Amino acid sequence: MTELVLAGAATTALTHFAMYGLASIVEHETGRSVASYWHDSGTPKARVVVDGLDEEQIAAAVHQHANRCAADGSWLHAQTDIGGKPTAAFSPRIHIPADDGEWIALQQTRQRCIDEVVQSGGFLDLAMIGGLGEPAYWRFDGKDRRPDHGASRWEMKARTHGADFVGGRLRPMAQVVADRSPVAILDGLTGVRLCDELVNDDPSSSQTATGFTRPEPTDCAIAWCALWGIANFPLAHHISTISTTPAAFPTTVLHTRFMVLPVITRPVATARMRSILVSAALRVHAEQQCGTSSHDPLLVDAARRWLKSRGVAATVLFPIEKAGTKNAPQRFVLEGTINVLSANESAGLLEHRTGGQST
Description:
- This protein is of the alpha+beta class.
- 38% of the residues lie in helices and 17% in strands.
- It has one domain (2-71, 170-353).
- The strands form 4 sheets. Strands 8, 9, 11, 12 and 13 form a 5-stranded antiparallel beta sheet that branches. Strands 1-3-2-10 form a 4-stranded antiparallel beta sheet.
- The longest helix has 21 residues, at 100-120.
């Protein structure tokens, strides 16, 4: 049994999503039993637990996954023309198709590729496609289309000059990680070395984290896993409102103001992790925590008890900043605050939250 300790803190959304993504990638690529959790200490660390593999073999699974995604036949390379411009078919936020013909062509391309993914057994790919969402051909505000209403709130790439997520971020990052050795990937995941191959001339403005932190240099292996963490947040599409993204609050606005994630302090399987992330209990607790909805105290107490029974010792409330311009807005997840569900059971987390002095 190997426990790989990821770089980063519990107060950084990038680390949470990297843990979710790494666990999902290794499970899918190796078929091994994988669990993850936060070690409850003065400085909580994300740990991914894998049965039967060492650390370099875990990194090799990430390398294998990136290689597969970077290959020409991958769904990441599927394109369609939108307004005469080649566009990645699986980017959830794109220019509005000019007419019904472009909408139909987009859907036909997506459906054909999804059929191919199903036939190949790419279940993680399907989860990622479902987590990203799609341009909402069904959403209108009066006569105006609102295609972004079908996209995940956690797809946060800046769309400057019409750039899209899959073509402008996921695809080039797949190649970067595929070009690394497993040892170099491991160094990035564990924080031995930070290598941001996508950084521009100004490292401080690096967008590699893609909204999971403010712009700053970010290791591409960590970022790759974090982006694939989106696969654990399946969207619920609605006719009458914006699609619901797990952990995003308020649930009915385009530019969400808060993210709330659990801190689980005992190893749980990836399926259990996903069930907690999409649970009504986490939603009720989170809405009460960030003040976006008022629930009956008995319901809030029941939600807390349900979460605690599944190893959730705390939650982290992340404020979200909206930046950029009206035509190209961008979201950044800011540093979070740990909120302990039970001080008696989580002294280490409480010390971390209060700067080392328990209360």
